[in-house]
Protein backbone atom coordinates (compact mmCIF):
# COMPACT_ATOMS: atom_id res chain seq x y z
CA UNK A 1 0.00 0.00 0.00
CA UNK A 2 1.12 3.55 -0.73
CA UNK A 3 0.16 6.73 1.08
CA UNK A 4 0.52 9.97 -0.85
CA UNK A 5 0.75 13.54 0.43
CA UNK A 6 0.74 16.51 -1.96
CA UNK A 7 2.13 19.96 -1.27
CA UNK A 8 2.99 23.13 -3.14
CA UNK A 9 -0.38 24.42 -4.23
CA UNK A 10 -1.41 28.03 -3.86
CA UNK A 11 -2.68 31.20 -5.48
CA UNK A 12 -0.72 32.65 -8.39
CA UNK A 13 -1.32 35.04 -11.26
CA UNK A 14 -1.61 33.92 -14.86
CA UNK A 15 1.79 33.38 -16.41
CA UNK A 16 3.48 32.44 -13.16
CA UNK A 17 4.83 29.04 -12.06
CA UNK A 18 4.28 26.54 -9.27
CA UNK A 19 5.88 23.23 -8.40
CA UNK A 20 3.82 20.54 -6.78
CA UNK A 21 5.39 17.74 -4.79
CA UNK A 22 3.97 14.39 -3.74
CA UNK A 23 5.69 12.40 -1.02
CA UNK A 24 4.97 8.68 -0.89
CA UNK A 25 5.31 6.34 2.04
CA UNK A 26 6.32 2.74 1.72
CA UNK A 27 9.24 0.91 0.19
CA UNK A 28 7.58 0.11 -3.13
CA UNK A 29 7.29 3.60 -4.62
CA UNK A 30 9.46 2.69 -7.61
CA UNK A 31 7.10 -0.13 -8.54
CA UNK A 32 4.26 2.29 -9.31
CA UNK A 33 3.61 4.43 -12.33
CA UNK A 34 2.77 7.87 -10.96
CA UNK A 35 0.36 10.45 -12.24
CA UNK A 36 -1.09 13.87 -11.60
CA UNK A 37 -4.78 14.45 -12.20
CA UNK A 38 -6.93 17.46 -11.48
CA UNK A 39 -10.53 18.37 -10.82
CA UNK A 40 -12.03 21.79 -11.39
CA UNK A 41 -15.32 22.85 -9.76
CA UNK A 42 -18.27 21.27 -11.52
CA UNK A 43 -16.06 19.14 -13.77
CA UNK A 44 -14.91 15.55 -13.81
CA UNK A 45 -11.45 14.58 -12.66
CA UNK A 46 -9.05 14.63 -15.61
CA UNK A 47 -5.60 13.32 -16.43
CA UNK A 48 -2.72 15.82 -16.44
CA UNK A 49 0.56 13.87 -16.62
CA UNK A 50 2.10 10.51 -15.83
CA UNK A 51 5.58 9.06 -15.49
CA UNK A 52 6.86 5.50 -15.75
CA UNK A 53 8.41 3.61 -12.87
CA UNK A 54 11.95 4.34 -14.04
CA UNK A 55 11.19 7.99 -14.77
CA UNK A 56 12.32 7.59 -18.38
CA UNK A 57 8.89 7.89 -20.00
CA UNK A 58 6.32 10.63 -19.57
CA UNK A 59 2.97 11.52 -21.07
CA UNK A 60 0.90 14.70 -20.88
CA UNK A 61 -2.59 15.93 -21.58
CA UNK A 62 -2.69 18.16 -24.64
CA UNK A 63 -3.86 21.08 -22.52
CA UNK A 64 -0.61 21.14 -20.50
CA UNK A 65 1.92 19.86 -23.01
CA UNK A 66 4.90 22.20 -23.26
CA UNK A 67 4.01 23.98 -20.00
CA UNK A 68 4.04 21.24 -17.35
CA UNK A 69 6.81 18.76 -16.54
CA UNK A 70 6.44 15.65 -14.42
CA UNK A 71 9.46 14.08 -12.76
CA UNK A 72 10.25 11.66 -9.97
CA UNK A 73 13.03 10.87 -7.55
CA UNK A 74 12.75 7.24 -6.52
CA UNK A 75 15.46 7.66 -3.89
CA UNK A 76 13.28 10.28 -2.17
CA UNK A 77 9.93 8.58 -2.88
CA UNK A 78 8.72 11.81 -4.43
CA UNK A 79 7.04 12.86 -7.66
CA UNK A 80 6.90 16.45 -8.87
CA UNK A 81 4.84 18.55 -11.24
CA UNK A 82 6.50 21.73 -12.48
CA UNK A 83 3.83 24.04 -13.85
CA UNK A 84 4.90 27.02 -15.95
CA UNK A 85 2.92 29.64 -17.83
CA UNK A 86 -0.12 28.92 -15.71
CA UNK A 87 -3.53 29.85 -17.08
CA UNK A 88 -6.81 30.58 -15.33
CA UNK A 89 -8.19 27.31 -16.72
CA UNK A 90 -5.51 25.39 -14.80
CA UNK A 91 -7.36 26.25 -11.59
CA UNK A 92 -8.28 22.97 -9.90
CA UNK A 93 -7.52 20.59 -7.08
CA UNK A 94 -4.48 18.60 -8.14
CA UNK A 95 -4.16 14.98 -7.07
CA UNK A 96 -1.15 12.74 -7.03
CA UNK A 97 -1.95 9.10 -7.78
CA UNK A 98 -0.19 5.76 -8.06
CA UNK A 99 -1.00 3.03 -10.56
CA UNK A 100 0.07 -0.61 -10.59
CA UNK A 101 -0.80 -0.80 -14.29
CA UNK A 102 1.72 -0.29 -17.08
CA UNK A 103 -0.57 2.05 -18.96
CA UNK A 104 -3.92 3.79 -18.80
CA UNK A 105 -4.52 7.31 -17.53
CA UNK A 106 -8.16 7.33 -16.60
CA UNK A 107 -8.84 7.98 -12.93
CA UNK A 108 -10.07 4.40 -12.60
CA UNK A 109 -6.59 3.15 -13.58
CA UNK A 110 -5.05 4.55 -10.41
CA UNK A 111 -5.02 2.55 -7.17
CA UNK A 112 -3.93 5.12 -4.59
CA UNK A 113 -4.65 8.83 -4.24
CA UNK A 114 -3.44 11.77 -2.21
CA UNK A 115 -5.80 14.23 -0.55
CA UNK A 116 -5.24 16.89 -3.22
CA UNK A 117 -3.78 20.39 -3.23
CA UNK A 118 -5.58 23.49 -4.49
CA UNK A 119 -4.09 25.49 -7.33
CA UNK A 120 -5.78 28.79 -8.12
CA UNK A 121 -4.68 30.95 -11.04
CA UNK A 122 -6.04 34.46 -11.18
CA UNK A 123 -6.50 36.02 -14.59
Question: If you had to describe this structure to a student in words, what would you say it looks like?
Answer:
It is a single chain. By secondary structure, the chain is mainly beta. The protein has no helices and 11 strands. 0% of the residues lie in helices and 48% in strands. Strand 5 and strand 6 (58-60) form a beta hairpin. The strands form 2 sheets. Strands 2, 4, 5, 6, 9, 10 and 11 form a 7-stranded mixed beta sheet that branches. The protein has strands at 4-7, 10-13, 18-24, 33-39, 46-51, 58-60, 68-73, 78-83, 92-99, 112-113, 117-122. The model has no long low-confidence stretch (mean pLDDT 96). The chain is globular and about 40 Å long.
Summarize the structure.
This protein has strands at 4-7, 10-13, 18-24, 33-39, 46-51, 58-60, 68-73, 78-83, 92-99, 112-113, 117-122.
Keywords for this entry:
single chain, 123 residues, mainly beta, seven-stranded mixed sheet, four-stranded antiparallel sheet, 0% helix, globular
Structural class: mainly beta
What Rg do the Cα atoms give? 13 Å
Helix fraction by DSSP (H/I, runs of at least 4) = under 10%
The biggest beta sheet is recorded as:
7 strands, mixed
Tally of helical segments: 0
Order of helices and strands: EEEEEEEEEEE
Residue fraction in strands? over 45%
Low confidence ranges: none
Mean pLDDT: 96
Characterize the overall form: globular
Distance between the termini: 39 Å
Seen as an oligomer or otherwise, the chain set is: single chain
* β-strand number: 11
Amino acid sequence: QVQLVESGGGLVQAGESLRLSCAASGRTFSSYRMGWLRQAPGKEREFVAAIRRSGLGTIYADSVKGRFTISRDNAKNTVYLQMNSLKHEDTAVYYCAASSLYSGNLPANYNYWGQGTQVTVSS
